[in-house]
From TrEMBL:
Stated name of the protein: Four-helix bundle copper-binding protein
Stored PANTHER family: CYTOPLASMIC PROTEIN, CYTOPLASMIC PROTEIN-RELATED
Species annotation: Sphingomonas aracearum
Membrane spanning stretches: none
Length: 129
């Protein structure tokens, strides 16, 4: 299954899709899953991980909302898409910074995914007029 293919099937797309936007939507969903998993793992750590848990959960919510909005093509709202991509970039940066503070493999993976998601959102942002 491919979100690119699904987006290309939209009547407005006429068989084409904004590739960077499709990649950003896909990776934002992946990032939401990584952040959710990291928050869950942090909750099982013996030390106080409250800030990391909160940051990961917030980032997961922003990423999920961004992915949904980025995948929509009917009645374009580039201002909102731009705002969501920007919010996702910011949330991912904040989450990566927080996860970098901890010496746990799940935090390292989450930080890496957040950076990749932010990069993809920047590329998608550049495609908006």
């Amino acid at each position: 299954m491919s979100i690119r293919k699904m987006m290309a099937l939209h009547p407005k797309a006429e068989g084409h899709t904004n590739e960077p936007m499709a990649v950003a939507a896909k990776h934002a969903m992946y990032c939401a899953l990584f952040c959710t998993s990291c928050a869950d793992a942090c909750s099982a750590e013996p030390m106080d991980m409250a800030q990391c848990i909160r940051t990961c959960m917030d980032c997961a919510d922003v990423c999920t909302a961004t992915a949904k909005i980025a995948a929509r093509q009917t009645a374009e709202d580039n201002a909102l898409v731009r705002a969501m991509l920007t919010a996702c970039i910011d949330a991912c940066h904040i989450c990566a910074t927080e996860c970098d503070r901890h010496d746990h493999e799940h935090c390292r993976l989450c930080a890496t995914m957040c950076r990749e998601c932010a990069d993809d959102c920047r590329e998608a942002l550049a495609t908006l007029h």
